[in-house]
Amino acid sequence: MKLIPIGVSARHIHLTDEHVEQLFGQGAELTVFKPLSQPGQYAANETVAIVGPKGRFDKVRILGPVRPSTQIEVSRTDAFALGIQPPVRESGNIVDTPGLRVIGPKGEIELDKGVIVAARHIHFHTSDAERWDIQDKQLLRVRVGGERPLVFEDVIARVSDQFALDFHIDTDEGNAAGVKTGDQAELLR
After folding, report:
1. pTM beyond 0.85
2. Distance between CA atoms of residues 20 and 169, nearest Å
């Protein structure tokens, strides 16, 4: 049996250096609240508000380190509350996506793109991928056995020597299955 730890991802935002300064002031840098499952990644102490046509969420956690493009990841339920229709995408693919207003303590930005519902995926370290004969971008099936067991289809394999083994789903998906971060999933193939 091939078991993989589950990481349930709540709404969050990734920012560029420029946007960190616009939202938090000149010279501002993100500070570490807690490390995440992926090496070098962390939840920052800093949070922002995100505002859509119908609603807003305050205290949206920023994940660091900074990125080349600002990106907001929400669940489908969050998107309804905000009044937007973001596509399901792999992280980093923000072409033809909606934007939002982002409000920080020292300023705000109006994004014309950047909001996605993150596609479910598994981070594989290259050694794990080789051991299990997994290719980058391969589509997989994964079984979770929470209160409401189910099988996830079309789970994208993401392979890198910078990754640690982890199955990432959003809060809607985690709630549907009754699983939480730290639970285990079984790779079916």
Report:
1. yes
2. 26
